[in-house]
Every structure is written in C-alpha cells, then in structure tokens.
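Researcher: I'm preparing a figure for a lab meeting and need a structural model of a single chain. I don't have an experimental structure, so a prediction will have to do for now. The sequence is pasted below. Please return the structure as tokens so I can convert it later.
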Amino acid sequence: MTAYIVRRCGHALVVLFGVSIIVFILLHMLPGGPARASLGLRANPASIRAFDLRYGLNEPLPIQYLIWIGQLLHGNLGFSYKLNQSVDALLAENLPRTLVLVGSATVIAVVAAVPLGMYQAVRRNSPEDYVLTGLSFLFYSMPSFFLGIVLIILLSDVLPLFPATGPTATQPLLSQLSNLVLPVLTLTLITLALFSRYMRSSVLDNLTQDYVRTATAKGLSRVRILFRHVLPNAVLPIITLIGLSLPGILGGALIVESLFNYPGMGLLFWTAAQSEDFPVMLGTSVVIGTGVVIGSLLADILYAVADPRIRY
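Model: Understood. Here is the structure written out token by token.
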C-alpha cells in the first residue's frame, strides 16, 4: 500500500507539472500579453518594455516558466496587477468559501443519493422508479447555469423564499445561510442526479450476486440483506465516482459562483479571465489542478480501506 501511494504521488507530480506547462503556455499565447492587459490598449511601447523588464516578461518563455516555478515552490504564486494584491492572499481569502460550497453540495448529494438509489433499485420498474429516473436524467442533462436561473425564478421570484444572490465577502458565511441555499442546491441537484444513477445500478448488480441468494435462502430479512450485505458492496463505486467527479463539480462551481455572484475561487477566476489577470488565472488553475489530483488519490486510498479484498 505504501509503495502504491508513493507511485501515485509521483504520478500526481508529473500530472501537475504537465498541467502547469500547458496552462502557462496557453495563457501567454493570449493576444496582447500581460503587459498590454495590465497597462491598457493605449500603453506606449516604452511603458510595455519597462513593465516586461520589471516582471521578467522580456525573458524567453522557458526562462519565464522556470522563474514562475521557482517562485511557486517557495509558496509565491505571484502578484495581481489588476487587484494590487498577492495571489496567495486572494486564494487564501476565496478558497475556503469554495470549499464550503463544493463540500456541502457533495456531502448532501452523497447522503441523499445512497438511500435514493437503493429505493429505486428495490422498486425497479415501478412508477416511483420511472419518476425518479426521469428527474435524474432531467437534472443531469440540465446545464448548471440554466438550473440556477430556474431556481432563482421559482424560489426567489415566484416564491420569495431565498435571496437570488450568494453571500457577500464582507460577512461570515454562517451569518448568511439563506444566501447559501440556492448556490448549494444548484450544485447538489446536478451531482445528486449522477450519484443516484450509479447507486441504483450498483445495487441492482449486487442484488443478482450469489451471496444475496445465499442470505435469502438462510432466511435473513430483506432489510438485513440490503443494509448489512448489499449496501457496503454497492457504495464502493460511489467512492471512486467522487474522485472522478471532482473536475466536473469544480467546473460547475465556477459557473454557479459566477451566476450567484458567490465570492469564491470560481468567481475569482472568472473575473481574472475577463480582465486578463494572468497571475491570478495561473494560481487558480494550479490550486484547482492540485485539488483534483489529491481528490483522485484519496478516492483510491479510501476504496482500498473500504474494501479489504482490494490490495494495491
């Protein structure tokens, strides 16, 4: 197990290295470059040269990348020209709020998907199963921005139950729980639709296994078979699915944060992309990429912990 973790950590470093190279090159291929984006379209060539000289942008692209990586290894993610603030401070301020949004939506979706998927499997081909399946397909195929708009119209306009905007950055999140409802609900419904479908399929697959027939022949009750034997085996694919779904969940969080003006990593990246704030886009991409790789690694480890039959 230890050797496997060491190998996966090595693979993770290679992936992060490749992601950093690709993102760095793509951002520097944008028209105008950092100097033009920071100084404006009317900046004269002398100002642009001075800006490039000050921030090392006059060096060849590989040298710029090595300088940036060196700063990154020392915990320096750069400085935002637009916001006049270090990227480290911006990420430290916005990352916890995104973790609250993504973490809440994922936990609620998993907790709801497990019993929902089991109920659909037990009631297979019943009217309830058809209705829940139709809703799952509807939410899973619906773009997050469209679902968010629908929820705003229904729960904020037609039925004024919750605010149409997310919490503000000037007050603690716990004092703005009503503002969290619609952003979390939007992300939860899409994630729940995916997890419940996998849980239903996993339970149906386990119900056909020999150990279920043996337990039934021994006279065990249906409830005991489901919760004592089927559930521990059926929930295993969900663990892997959580790790694989992190990129999609984080991508959905970017759209949700932009839609509800939620002050997190997604809104920070969206604002930086609009203003061509290169250091912020680089820092955000690296942090999100690191989170996805770590999440995938943790999912593999938890899979082995949850199933003693698995040995890496």
